[in-house]
Amino acid sequence: MGSMRGSSISSWALLVAKALEAGGHDSEDVFRRAGLDPAKLKDADARYPIEGMRRLWRLAVQVTGDPYFGLKAAGFWHPTTMHALGYSWMASDSLRDALIRMTRYGRLVTTVAEMTLEEFDDHFAFKIHSLITRSQTPNEAIDAGLATLVSMCRMSYGDDFHPLRVVTQRPKFDDPAPYIEYFHAPVEFSASDNILYFSKDSLEAHLLTANPRLARVSDRVVTQYLAQFDKGSTAIRVRAKLIDLLSAGNVTQKDVADSLHMSLRTLQRKLSEERTSYKELLDETRRELANQYLRQASLSVSEVTYLLGFSEPSNFARAFKRWTGSTPSEFRAAA
Question: What range does the domain containing 21 cover?
């Protein structure tokens, strides 16, 4: 199934295979030349090493002679391209929620990029920061990453979705027109990072595809996958345990440490090294689940209280007010 260290999920490489085949090229031959086993494309949990993915992107451009190959590959995106994260995305309440999921679980797709979403007074900035050197990152992979994210936004929001601005590390094309046309936005080339700027209205609008139950189930699959394969991230493993254990009642830090077969002190140290804490993870997980549960009319506020491991509705109401500024009932009425 492959290691998480310096890797991408195999379904991300499937975009390359489909784009090659659509152009009349033998994708299996290209994969083998890149040192990648094409059979792994049929294993949803498999991963490819980053070195092989780098060779694959560059070979694909050589074979096709298409400098815009990354954009072509993005056109084959499907929710399964990102395992269960694709379904979490499609079921999100808003594009803001979807992008927050991407920042949290993006390691499922690739372990060599860090994604962040920053809010400003009148816009949002979604940054994809590479954790490897610029020379190790194929331009086509950057193109595909940015274009796929915009394609995902359009699939959820509508074809009229456009970013405000695109900033990319890739050098300017001889003819940048197809690139600019794809994004329908101004593009800055040869930048120090990769950033998509979005309007607040577009990211905060409620999505017709929102499905809290599906989002919750998909999030659980994502966290289980990461907990199994991303052994280096204690925070991911703690989040997965919290999702599993919260409905059984109040979950203590010691409960989680015991379930992960480590001492309380070791758990605290590992989380501190990842710049987080048990309290922060517990709050984040409860807040996310609360937002999903309260959008399900079939669940009463009392039921949501106990599903989140609170002993009393009043305790849940206080916590929810602290998280959102509104009571659970006010939130449900406005949803």
Answer: 7-204
Instruction: Say what the pLDDT of residue 165 is.
Output: 98
Q: Do 31 and 173 lie in a common domain?
A: yes
Q: Is residue 198 classed exposed, middle or buried when 0-12, 13-18 and 19+ CB atoms within 10 A define those classes?
A: buried
pLDDT digits (tens, 9 = 90+) for 14-69: 999 999 999 999 999 999 999 999 999 999 899 999 999 999 999 999 999 999 99
Structure token pair of residue 147: 């274009």
* CATH code: domain of residue 156: 3.90.1520
Q: Is residue 65 part of a domain?
A: yes
Mean pLDDT, the chain, whole residue set: 92
Same domain, 197 and 309: no
Query: Domain ends where: 185, 204, 223?
Result: 204
Provide the pLDDT for residue 134.
81
CB 108 within 8 A of CB 81: no
Matching residue, tokens 């595809």 = 209
* Number of domain units in the chain: 2
pLDDT in tens, 155-199: 999 999 999 999 999 999 999 999 999 999 999 999 999 999 999
The encoded tokens of residue 114 equal 């860090």
The CA-based angle 249-252-254, given to 5 degrees, is: 135
- What lies within 8 Å, CB to CB, of 219 at 6+ separation is 84, 88, 101, 105, 243, 288
**Residue carrying structure tokens 């209280």:** 305
What would you report as the CA-atom Rg of the chain, rounded to the nearest whole angstrom?
21
Is pLDDT above 80 for 3? no
Write the CATH number for 252.
Answer: 1.10.10.60
Contact 259, 278 (CB under 8 A): no
| Both tokens assigned to 260 | 């992960």
User: Global pTM?
Assistant: 0.80
